[in-house]
């Protein structure tokens, strides 16, 4: 969990060009440590009465052995193999261990404390990069602020403190488009299932007006010149989506190169269609159009399909995404705000995985899934049990 709290500040070193490598070293060190701690807790921890594996447990275990088999066949970079293997082991151990200790005092303390720590960590990082910006230093506005999502979930579910609203401000100031979208969709999800339909209508109505005005402005004038009045770091985040009189939208800049990753995976599937079914295992790689061999696929559904194959990837995504969707229907009846908080948080983090490969690397995703499935999805009507 260290990188969840300290990650934004460490990431700010890269954005301010102080250090490009420290984030990678801290991440892998933390990943190894978290994997060891969760695995030891899973193996040596005190088992609960009637403790059983559920569908997510079985799916993760099957995915591990499936990927190992195809890793042996396709090989790949040893760094990628070890990294992806540790990610899924950590996710499995984290998920199952969390279910085991949900009713302990330690988890209850964690439940109250971690949103505050995440908000504090993001706040420090935002102040740091904007201080550099004010001093005239070059700063790339694209801070990883997912540590503020728990506080945001508390704010919209009214389970946090009076400072929880700051999370929305910090996420927007961070400038990471995927996280801003995650925040918006999580709010819409909450208001659709559990909140006021009037508020949902207002949000959609106001959003429609803003989008409409933007389209009108685009049709009446040169929007590239209009947004030129914005600060340069903010301007650089917007202009890839625009086009001037001569150039089309730069898709590579607009997607931060993610389109090239997807194109590389599709090219690999075209050359060998069997990989669509089997995946390439933990060392999955592809060749870019430039001829460079790469392994990074940021969009989680494509990354999962690349590693495990399309059928297994779809199964994993289905059972994970259906967990909060089915749970929210039950929560809408008993109005358990603390459980609703976990559902909204889970949704926001899962939406984020469509812009960055956090699916097997953010332990809070698996903690939230464990909290939802173990506490409220009973053996008789829970999705995680009906599939086995």
In words, what does this structure look like?
This protein is mainly α and 388 residues long. It has one domain (2-196, 277-287, 301-386). Helices cover 70% and strands 1% of the residues. The chain contains 19 helices and two strands. It has a two-stranded antiparallel sheet with strand order 1-2. A hairpin with a 5-residue loop joins β1 (286-287) and β2. α1 (2-15) runs antiparallel to α2, α1 (2-15) runs parallel beside α5 (105-134) and α6 (149-157) packs parallel to α8. The longest helix is centred in the N-terminal third of the chain and has 30 residues, at 105-134. The two termini are 31 Å apart. Residues 220-224, 244-248 and 378-388 have low confidence and may be disordered.
Radius of gyration: 22 Å
Low-pLDDT windows of residues: 220-224, 244-248, 378-388
Sketch the major β-sheet. Answer: 2 strands, antiparallel
Q: What is the mean pLDDT?
A: 82
Please indicate the count of domains. 1
The helix-and-strand class reads mainly alpha
**Count, helices:** 19
Summarize the helix and strand pattern as letters.
Answer: HHHHHHHHHHHHHHEEHHHHH
Distance between the termini: 31 Å
Total strands? 2
Q: Classify the helix fraction into a percent range.
A: 55-70%
Name the shape in a single word. globular
- Give the strand order of the largest sheet, numbering strands 1, 2, ... along the chain: 1-2
Strand content: under 5%
């Amino acid at each position: 969990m260290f990188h969840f709290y300290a990650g934004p500040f460490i990431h700010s070193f890269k954005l301010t060009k102080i250090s490009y490598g420290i984030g990678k070293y801290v991440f892998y060190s933390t990943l190894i440590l978290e994997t060891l701690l969760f695995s030891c807790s899973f193996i040596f921890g005190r088992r609960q009465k009637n403790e059983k594996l559920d569908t997510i447990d079985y799916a993760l275990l099957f995915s591990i052995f499936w990927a190992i088999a195809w890793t042996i066949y396709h090989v790949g970079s040893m760094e990628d193999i070890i990294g992806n293997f540790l990610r899924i082991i950590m996710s499995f151990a984290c998920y199952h261990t969390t279910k085991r200790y949900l009713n302990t005092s330690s988890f209850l303390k964690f439940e109250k404390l971690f949103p505050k720590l995440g908000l504090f960590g993001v706040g420090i990082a935002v102040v740091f990069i904007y201080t550099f910006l004010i001093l005239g230093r070059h700063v790339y506005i694209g801070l990883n602020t997912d540590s503020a999502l728990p506080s945001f979930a508390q704010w919209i579910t009214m389970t946090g403190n009076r400072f929880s609203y700051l999370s929305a401000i910090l996420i927007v100031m961070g400038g990471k488009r995927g996280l801003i979208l995650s925040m918006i969709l999580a709010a819409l999800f909450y208001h659709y299932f559990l909140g006021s339909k009037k508020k949902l209508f207002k949000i959609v109505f106001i959003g429609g007006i803003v989008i409409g005005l933007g389209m009108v402005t685009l049709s009446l004038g040169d929007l590239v010149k209009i947004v030129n009045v914005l600060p340069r770091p903010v301007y650089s985040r917007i202009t890839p989506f625009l086009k001037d009189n001569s150039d089309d939208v730069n898709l590579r800049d607009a997607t931060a190169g993610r389109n090239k990753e997807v194109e590389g995976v599709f090219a690999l599937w075209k050359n060998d269609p069997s990989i669509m079914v089997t995946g390439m295992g933990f060392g999955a790689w592809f060749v870019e159009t430039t001829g460079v061999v790469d392994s990074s696929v940021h969009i989680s559904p494509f990354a999962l399909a690349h590693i495990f194959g399309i059928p297994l990837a779809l199964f994993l995504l289905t059972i994970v995404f259906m967990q909060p969707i089915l749970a929210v229907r039950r929560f809408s009846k008993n109005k358990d705000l603390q459980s609703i908080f976990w559902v909204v948080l889970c949704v926001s983090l899962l939406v984020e995985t469509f812009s960055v490969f956090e699916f097997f690397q953010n332990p809070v995703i698996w903690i939230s899934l464990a909290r939802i499935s173990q506490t409220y999805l009973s053996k008789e009507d829970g999705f995680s049990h009906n599939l086995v």
